[in-house]
Specification:
The protein is mainly beta. The chain has one domain: Roll (SH3 type barrels), CATH 2.30.30.790. Helix content is about 5%, strand content about 45%. The chain has a five-stranded antiparallel β-sheet, with no helix packed on it. The radius of gyration is 16 Å and the shape is globular.
């Protein structure tokens, strides 16, 4: 078990911001199109965090043009350039799947004031 732990620790990212379910985040990822590379930003609310360690992933949801769009990002993936927390949300659940059925102001999460 220690061998697996040492192998996975070298691939984990050290500087990750504090992010929890309900937070609004801006995820920057490296997209490869043919021979060119560019950075693309996906901004939305974290509705789920799964697993842990090297397998940790977050599900980010945003609404664009009235249509909900969700993406699952492996947090420690080399294609993710960075994750920036924009605002912290005040939630009482571990998974916010109920936001899928909501539109407009009902789909917002209250801001946590620290």
């Amino acid at each position: 078990m220690d061998l697996i732990k040492t192998l996975t620790e070298q691939y984990m990212k050290k500087e990750l911001p504090e992010m929890n379910v309900g937070d609004t985040v801006r995820v920057t990822l490296r997209v490869k199109e043919g021979t060119r590379e560019r950075n693309q930003v996906f901004e939305g609310t974290i509705i789920a965090r799964k697993h842990g360690g090297i397998n940790e992933s977050i599900t980010v949801r945003r609404i664009s043009n009235g249509v909900g769009c969700e993406k699952v990002f492996p947090v420690h993936s080399p294609s993710i350039v960075g994750v920036e927390t924009i605002r912290h949300g005040k939630v009482r659940r571990a998974k916010l799947y109920y936001l899928r059925g909501r539109v407009g102001k009902k789909a917002k999460v209250k801001e946590l004031i620290k």
